[in-house]
Specification:
The protein is an alpha/beta fold. The protein has eight helices and seven strands. The chain has helices at residues 16-30, 49-52, 59-77, 96-109, 125-141, 166-169, 183-190, 200-217, and strands spanning 6-11, 34-39, 81-84, 113-116, 157-161, 175-178, 234-239. The protein has a seven-stranded mixed β-sheet, sandwiched between helices. The longest helix is centred in the first third of the chain and has 19 residues, at 59-77. The protein is globular and about 60 Å long. The two termini are 30 Å apart.
Length: 248
Amino acid sequence: MSEKKTALVISAHAADFVWRCGGAIALHAEMGYDVTVVCLSFGERGESAKLWKQPGITLEKVKAARRAESEKAAKALGVHDLISFDLGDYPLRLTDDDKYRLVDVIRQLQPSFMLSHSQYDPYNTDHMYATQVALETRMIAQAWGHNPGQKVLGAPQLYLFEPHQTEQMGWKPDVFLDITSVWEKKRAAIECMEGQEHLWEFYTRVAQNRANHFQRNSGGQSGGQSGGRAAKYAEGFQSVFPRTVDEL
């Protein structure tokens, strides 16, 4: 029997994995992948504005609400394991021990691929920091001299999911994933994130726009006469590393 396929999402805050790659999570979960999501923080300070407007709210209450939202969203998407590091946000910072904890997750999981944020985000430096951490821990997980005796990591692709203000981030997608078949799961997960209700329709439109790009790049033109595959919802990703192939 072949080993279970796995994937890893490294999310700076509790909602990021929902907006940006919820479709990829749900789709691969349906394909039989065990998808693990590591949330480095709950986004309790910087990404919970609606919650902070409630009378008598406290930091711990916000964190509890965000945890509950992310757990409910993860269940809707079919996440195999949601791991909350609870490291704080604005700013997000990891110690070496925090990074080694993430390396342990990566080595245990041996993911077929990884997902994280754009490499540049001047509006939210937590996001680009999370991707720097993803790259650093991926590197450490490949090092034979780190905890000798453990199985080292191979070379999983790191896909960068779409940031909020794409043009300002220098993010350029080279992969479009059709998520039409799992859109209802992603929308259900989106609606779990009640602390950021203002983003629900925005990310629905993003998915519709990317579906247009999916169809165009699969050969579809107006009227569908060029044989492209129709899609109603899609997600875009930028790959960091070259992909090795035997034919084009």
